């Protein structure tokens, strides 16, 4: 009897000390353009709430979820609006230029462009630049005298160094040292997926849309 009781206790203790299997969190690869990094922080907050793991990647082709500013020229995969922003033409706070109309922006930024001030734009593949050319310049070529900034941070730095310069930002990136000359409202911020989202990716999108 004592032997059986001892054996039972040993088995019970062994069962209690056995490791509880854990489920590894789902990994979602996410890519954000230079203009959408503010929403990347929101994505990480959502992932924490949903017990998901986000892995940042640079190549949209490797991403399960890509964040972009404005609609792509041609998009073959699902896209979901998670927010909206404004595209701005800005200058130094001390620049006396009046507010611009759409025609004024084209007169400055479209080829050949006005020469009496520095112009800053982005590379042609940048999502914000695509919106600017399509919606504001209405497809016209950008002036050849324009300087190229690779990111909103570089744009802000360039405009702060030259108060007469004109450049492009979104309202999300607007700096107090800069003055808005022109605004294009209602630019969608999109979350693009490779296919119809399921599981954790679907939950993450729902969180980003709240």
Would you give an account of this structure?
The protein has 210 residues and is of the alpha/beta class. It folds into two domains: 27-82 and 190-208, no CATH class; 85-187, D-Maltodextrin-Binding Protein, domain 2. The protein is 32% helix and 26% strand. The protein is built from six helices and eight strands. It starts with a helix and ends with a helix.
Tags for this model:
210 residues; six-stranded mixed beta sheet; 2 domains; D-Maltodextrin-Binding Protein, domain 2; alpha/beta; disordered N terminus; 8 strands
Helix-strand blueprint:
Layout: H1 2-17, E1 27-32, H2 37-50, E2 53-56, E3 65-69, E4 79-92, H3 102-109, E5 120-121, H4 127-136, E6 147-148, H5 152-161, E7 166-170, E8 178-193, H6 199-208
Parallel strand pairs: 1-2, 1-3, 5-6
Antiparallel strand pairs: 3-8, 4-7, 4-8
Helix pairs in contact: 2-6
Report the portion of residues in β strands: 25-35%
Give the end-to-end Cα distance, rounded to a whole number of Å: 64 Å
Number of strands: 8
CATH architectural label of the largest domain: 3-Layer(aba) Sandwich
Number of domains: 2
* Helix and strand sequence: HEHEEEHEHEHEEH
Radius of gyration: 25 Å
Count, helices: 6
- Name the strands of the widest sheet in spatial order: 2-1-3-8-4-7
Mean pLDDT: 88
Largest sheet: 6 strands, mixed
């Amino acid at each position: 009897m004592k032997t059986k009781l001892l054996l039972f206790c040993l088995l019970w203790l062994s069962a209690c000390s056995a490791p509880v299997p854990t489920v590894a969190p789902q990994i979602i690869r996410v890519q954000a353009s230079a203009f959408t990094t503010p929403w990347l922080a929101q994505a990480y907050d959502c992932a924490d709430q949903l017990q998901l793991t986000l892995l940042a990647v640079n190549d949209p082709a490797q991403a399960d979820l890509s964040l972009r500013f404005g609609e792509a020229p041609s998009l073959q995969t699902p896209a979901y609006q998670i927010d909206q922003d404004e595209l701005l033409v800005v200058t130094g706070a001390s620049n006396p230029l009046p507010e611009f109309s759409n025609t004024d922006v084209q007169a400055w930024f479209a080829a050949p462009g006005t020469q009496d001030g520095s112009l800053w734009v982005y590379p042609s593949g940048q999502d914000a630049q695509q919106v600017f050319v399509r919606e504001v310049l209405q497809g016209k070529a950008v002036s050849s005298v324009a300087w190229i900034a690779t990111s909103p941070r570089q744009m802000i730095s360039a405009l702060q160094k030259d108060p007469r310069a004109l450049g492009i930002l979104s309202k999300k990136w607007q700096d107090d040292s800069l003055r808005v000359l022109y605004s294009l409202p209602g630019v969608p911020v999109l979350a693009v997926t490779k296919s119809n989202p399921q599981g954790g990716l679907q939950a993450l999108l729902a969180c980003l849309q709240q």
